[in-house]
């Protein structure tokens, strides 16, 4: 039986500055939430697909999050791998703001 997706509270919407990343651990999994310069929120898997390093420690700039270990990059809006050594896309997740809280559907 497939597990049903659920909405999980990640953080207060105003606690995240533009191009800031926040880590979310839930159900034995890790995710990252990023706020774009335009004020939109995005979520994706929280470990680099290359060596499973936490992306929450990475640099965010221009729609890209960079892994802090080997500098592979991902488009934080889609999870798409953009630069080696990361070559496997990450799963992205639906995000909504509810009562000032960033909610992620995992």
Automatic annotation (TrEMBL):
Xref: InterPro entries: Rieske_2Fe-2S (IPR017941), Rieske_2Fe-2S_sf (IPR036922)
One Gene Ontology MF term: metal ion binding
Keywords (A to Z) from UniProt: 2Fe-2S, Iron, Iron-sulfur, Metal-binding
PROSITE patterns recorded: RIESKE
UniProt keyword Cytoplasm, yes or no: no
Domain Rieske: 8-104
Keyword Oxidoreductase: no
PANTHER family per UniProt: 3-PHENYLPROPIONATE_CINNAMIC ACID DIOXYGENASE FERREDOXIN SUBUNIT, FERREDOXIN-RELATED
Protein name in UniProt: Non-heme iron oxygenase ferredoxin subunit
Organism: Bradyrhizobium zhengyangense
